[in-house]
Amino acid sequence: MDGGILILVKQLLNPMIFELSKVDSIANHFLAELRDTEIQKDSMRFRRNLERVGELLAYELSKSLDYTEKLIQTPLGKAPVKLIENNLVLITILRAGIPFFQGFLNIFDQAESGFVGAFRKSEDVIDGVEIEMGYVTSPSLENKSLLIIDPMLATGKSLIKTVNGLKDRGTPSCIHVVSAIASRAGIEFVKKNLSLDFNLWTGVIDEHLNENFYIVPGLGDAGDLSYGPKL
User: Fold this and answer.
1) 73 occurs within a structural domain
2) Which residue in 93, 129, 118, 90 sits closest to 209, CA to CA?
3) Residues 152, 218 contacting (CB under 8 angstroms)
4) How far is residue 52's CA from residue 62's CA, in Å, rounded to a whole number?
C-alpha cells in the first residue's frame, strides 16, 4: 500500500481506519453533493453519488487484499499480472445500502453477495436505538473476506446486529466495515462490541449524533433520499 495515498490510523487494538476525505481528491466533490440539500432533491444523482463513493472506497480497499502472480495469454505472448486471491463476500443492509453496494459490486464484480433487512424499530432518547432484523441471505462466510457495506455508520447497532445475524454462515478470515459517512460514536460502539478483528473504510468521519441518533452534519436519511419517504 502507498503510504502517500492511504491515511491509515491505528487504534490501540484493531481496527485500521481509512478516511477517504483526508486526502484531497474528486471524492470530496461526491461527498459534498451527497450532503447538499439542493442536490439531494435529485434522487437519481444522490444514488449515483453513493455508487461513485462506493467505487472509490472499493478501489482503496483493494490495495489491502492479497494478490497472486499469474500468466495471462495475450494475442502476442504471455503477460505476468497480479490478481486478487481473496474470496470476497459483499453484504449490504437494505434498503439504503443498495446504491452504495452497487459501487462495490462494480469493482469487485466476481464477489459473492448477501443482503440483510435491518431497520430502526424505535428511537428512545434514554435507551437509544432498537434495531430489528427480519431478513438475512448470505453465502458461506467461512475463511472469506467479508465486506459489510452500509452508507451510514451512525450508532453502529445495525452493523453489530448484522454480524451477529451472520454467525451461522461461518467465520470470515477478515471483516471490512464500509460506510460513506461514519460517526465517531458509531465507530467506538463497533470497536467495543465486535468480537472479531476488522478494518473500517469510510468517506468521512463526523463527530456527533443528534437526539434522534442521526449523524450530524451527516446527510439525512440515505434510504429516503434514494427511494422516497417510507411510511
Assistant:
1) no
2) 129
3) yes
4) 15
pLDDT digits (tens, 9 = 90+) for 40-77: 999 999 999 999 999 999 999 999 999 999 999 999 99
CA dist 156 → 37, 145, 188 (Å): 25, 20, 8
Per-residue pLDDT of 132-154, as tens digits, reads 667 888 999 999 999 999 999 99
Q: What is the CATH number of the domain that holds 92?
A: 3.40.50.2020
Pairing verdict, β 145-149 and 152-153: unpaired
Domain count, the chain: 1
The burial of 41, by beta-carbon neighbours within 10 Å (0-12 exposed, 13-18 middle, 19 or more buried), is given as: exposed
Q: Specify whether the CB–CB gap between 177 and 198 falls below 8 A.
A: yes
Q: Give the pLDDT band (50/70/90) at residue 9.
A: very low
Say if residues 204 and 20 touch (Cβ distance below 8 Å).
yes
Query: Domain range spanning residue 184?
Result: 8-65+86-227
Q: Is 45 helix (H, G, I), strand (E, B) or coil?
A: helix
Question: In this predicted model, what pLDDT tens digit does every residue of 90-131 receive, in sequence order?
Answer: 999 988 899 999 999 999 999 999 999 766 665 544 456 666
